[in-house]
Amino acid sequence: xxxxxxxxxxxxxxxxxxxxxxxxxxxxxxxxxxxxxxxxxxxxxxxxxxxxxxxxxxxxxxxxxxxxxxxxxxxxxxxxxxxxxxxxxxxxxxxxxxxxxxxxxxxxxxxxxxxxxxxxxxxxxxxxxxxxxxxxxxxxxxxxxxxxxxxxxxxxxxxxxxxxxxxxxxxxxxxxxx
Length: 178
What we know:
Elements: E1 13-15, H1 20-27, E2 48-54, E3 57-71, E4 74-86, H2 95-107, E5 114-119, H3 124-129, E6 133-134, E7 139-142, E8 148-150, E9 154-159, E10 171-173
Parallel strand pairs: 4-5, 7-10
Antiparallel strand pairs: 1-2, 2-3, 3-4, 3-10, 5-9, 6-9, 7-8
């Protein structure tokens, strides 16, 4: 997928750390940078981070986290993708594609056959263009105090191997969402 990067799009690199200050560098200091506070969900921090810097400023990010999941009752794992952010003044320049592609290249080395993300409905067309597919099933996720809730955001998946096929059946993320 790296070959799809425009010659004018800077390369994404793995970040040693990613902090709240880094997020604010990309999206500013608003209370709800991803527009998901209304869901009331508690989210996990990502473990692996990828970013793009332009002239010393972090302008794009994607994070990864390996997570347990049950699909049709069978337990497996997915690589959760989250925290995808592109600075508002840099959107539409291929940075989301570049940073997500770099993250997925790393995700392919992590073992699971699929990556999964949750997104607001207006972002579904973007992720479709990047090769993701929306799930028709509702996805249950864990929340504090042992609660399980139906994910109110759109769940999308992409294969990390050519021969991977998403199984059928109810989907339950066996952790907090990422």
